[in-house]
Each structure stands twice: as C-alpha cells, then as structure tokens.
Amino acid sequence: KVSRISDLEPKATPARASVRARRCDGLSPRCWAAAWEGAGASGRTSLVPPPPRPVGLGETREAANASASCSDPLAAFPNRSAPLVPCSGDWRYVQTHSTIVSEFDLVCVNAWMLDFTQAILNLGFLAGAFTLGYAADRYGRIVIYLISCFGVGITGVAVAFAPNFSVFVIFRFLQGVFGKGAWMTCFVIVTEIVGSKQRRIVGIVIQIFFTLGIIILPGIAYFIPSWQGIQLATTLPNFLFLLYYWVVPESPRWLITRKKGDKALHILRQIAECNGKYLSPNYSEITITDEEVSNPSFLDLVRTPQMRKCTLILMFAWFTSAVVYQGLVMRLGIIGGNLYIDFFISGVVELPGALLILLSIERIGRRLPFAASNIVAGVACLVTAFLPEGTPWLRTTVATLGRLGITMAFEIVYLVNSELYPTTLRNFGVSLCSGLCDFGGIIAPFLLFRLAAVWLELPLIIFGILASICGGFVMLLPETKGIALPETVEDVEKLGSSQSHQCGRKKKIQVSSSNV
C-alpha cells in the first residue's frame, strides 16, 4: 500500500497548479494569464502568440502588439483558436507549498516525470522484494529489518536534499528497496512470533497503524510548507526503529528452520518470562531432524500443485489490490475538490475495514471476506463510472464503498499470504508475491492518467473488471482459519486435502521439521 508525498501532488496543469509563463512573445505580461485561461490550454502546450497587427502612426510595434492582445488575445486567430506549440521558458508557481513539481519543473513536456517518480518508487519496492525478501529468509528477519530501516532513513534524507532530478530519482528508487524490506520483514516477524489465535489480531492491527499514517499524512503536508520538510518528517523516525535491536527478538520459527534450536528455546523462555509465565520442564530442548538446511528458491513456490496454485492466485490478488487501491487514491488529484480533505476522508474510510475484518475472518474464515471485498470494490467502481454527474453525493457514497472494499482486500491478502507459505519460504514468498503489487504500483499512475485523458471514468471500469475477476479467483484458495502456520512445503500441500479443513473445523497440521 503506497501513500507517498507525490500522492498529495495533483497533476501539474495551469488550472490546478496555477502555472504561469514568465515570458510570452507578443503578449504583455499582464495579458498572458487571460490568454492562457481563455484558450483553455492543456498544460502540456503553450499558446502561440497572435501575429502582430500593423504598427500605427506614432506607436511602437511592442505597444501595438500589447494593445491588440490586451483587447482580445485570440481575435487575430481564425475561429478564435490558437495553435499550440511545445512549452518553453522558465516558470513561476502561484502556490503556497513547494512541491517536487515546482522544484524540478515537472510540467508540460516534463509532466510525465511526475508519474515516473511514483513508478520508480514502486520499481524499488519490486527490487526490494527479490533481494531483501530472499535475504530475510537466508540471514534472519531482524537483521534485514534493521538494515532496511537504516537504509530508508539514509536514502530519505538524500532524497530531501537532492540537487537535481536525476539524484532525486536514484535515491527514491533506493528508498523503495529498503522500504519494502522494512515493511514485509516487520509483518512476517509479527506473524511468526505469535500463536494462531493472536495472528489475525496483530496482522490487522499493523494495517490499522498504516491507516493512521494515511490519516496523519495530509495534516503533515498541509502544515509543512515544503516537500523537503514533508520528506524529512516521514523519514527521520526510521532511525528510532534501530532501537528495536534491544527489544525485538529473532523469529524462533526461523531459527528452528536454520537448525538453531538452542537460540530459539532461549527466546521462548524470554517471551514466557515477559508474559509472567514459564516453560514446563518437559520443554527442555528442541530436537531438530537431520534434514539438510535448504535456501529459499523461486522454484519451490511453483514446483508442487498446491504451492503453484496459491502463488499464481496471490500474485494476481496483489497486483489487483495495488492497481485499484493506488488508482483510487491518485484519482483524488484529478477529480477536483480539496485534496487534503479528500485524502483525509479516504484514510478514515479504511478504519471500518479493519473492524469488519476482525469481526468476520474468525467467524466465517478468510476466503469469503477476501472474495466479497474484491467483488464489492469491483462493482462499486463499475457503478460509479456510469452514475450521472448531477448526483455527487451518490457518486461519493458508492466510490467510498469501493475504497472500503479494496482496503479490506489489501489487508486480507497480507494475512492470507503469510498463512499459506511455509516458514522456510514465508518471507521470500510474501515478498515475491507482493512484488506484483509493486508492478501494479508502477503502471497505476500511467494507467490512470493516460486512460483518464481519453475518458475520466475509463480507469474505474478497468479497476472494476480486475477486482471482480480477483474475487472469483481467491475462492479457489484453501481456507486457513484456525490452522497452524505450515513449516514445510509438504504442510502446504496438505492444506488442499479435505482432511486439513473440513467445514471450518480447526485441525492443527503437524510440524514436520521439528518438535518441542
């Protein structure tokens, strides 16, 4: 789920960003604004000045041109339609806040670069999924998490003080790499360190804090007048997370898979002591089989039938969630209204989604809420696209319902993905599947703005189709309600059999790699 600074920057058009040219050949400075707005320029081109009229007796050519243009800037053109040419010259921006648009002049022929900044961030997420996701399964969860937090802090500061656009893009990419490692490793640590009864709660609570960040973000952007300040405000707290080195232990499940039973038992004793409990003398050692430790591999995700089915469906679910979620967020910047208030409201809408998930997934399972949330989001997008413009309250209500649905789908896919993969592949598998989320984030800006240029509601139709199809696919996934986290690929294959889940009855799957 991506909600970055660029999400709060509307598309750079003359009407929205109040961009004005400093120079206009043939038009006086005080008449240029009227000429621009009267012609309804697109923001990616500029008006060609009208041909100069003949110079009158006793007046200069400059005065003649200024007089003609001030009286009616378009009068000299056939059908009052001025030809368009590429923009040129410097720009000044009539707005109170400094943004990356005004910093690097991302307007007119360079307007695509604003889309590119969001795409390059998601490309960094994708790279982080392959590299840091693999590293967390190979070298440990907490080590990669701390490295990622430090990397996010350093690259974020570099982004804030980037001297030019090229440096800005490079460090924004690197911030995406480390950001992916920090987020996914954090989620996996929390999932593995708690029992099955608490897993759903902590998994959703993490999402609630993400939502709280979205709610706070527009306030930060409103009161901090520059994009550099916003960048630092959202980046510097990452250095505080380095203190987790003394607080958060390594995942005992991961330690067992790496044949480090003594360390895992020591951590379990510490956890029991913190909870005011103690381990029974029967739990004196962890016996580990003699199986050779294997490193995670992509082939392990598709080699067996059940793993292959889960991987392909989860990849499509991640992709759909990213495209629809980010598309609906960024759409706020092109439909008008107060961007800060709209962004705030869109964040508040996500809170009921977490509550609905908590109330439903332990009563009726994971699959049905997962499928229903996608279908609700898809239908809401399709309905919104065809509602008449004269019913803003109805359009807003239906669109809000769609945002609620895709938020629930996004939060459930995190939980389901971590529950369907074995410990040996969990961090790598979740990171790799969520890589399709990052790919969706790369194409979402271009998909939204290019299709909206054809028809404003066309992106909603695409979003609706994707979400509806996804709702059908996720019903093919095995139910994981009340089932212990699988430890091996063989455990995952058992999830597909009728013996491992019958009518929602809880049935623990025996751990095959170790025992206490």
UniProtKB/TrEMBL annotation:
Gene Ontology annotations of biological process type: cellular detoxification; dopamine uptake; epinephrine transport; epinephrine uptake; histamine uptake; monoatomic ion transport; monocarboxylic acid transport; norepinephrine uptake
Every Major facilitator superfamily (MFS) profile domain range: 64-482
Record's catalysed reaction(s): (R)-noradrenaline(out) = (R)-noradrenaline(in); guanidine(out) = guanidine(in); agmatine(out) = agmatine(in); (R)-salsolinol(in) = (R)-salsolinol(out)
InterPro entries named among the record's database cross-references: MFS (IPR011701), MFS_dom (IPR020846), MFS_trans_sf (IPR036259), Orgcat_transp/SVOP (IPR004749), Sugar_transporter_CS (IPR005829)
UniProt membrane topology term: Multi-pass membrane protein
Keywords: Cell membrane, Glycoprotein, Ion transport, Membrane, Mitochondrion, Nucleus, Transmembrane, Transmembrane helix, Transport
Protein name: Solute carrier family 22 member 3
Source organism phylogeny: Eukaryota, Metazoa, Chordata, Craniata, Vertebrata
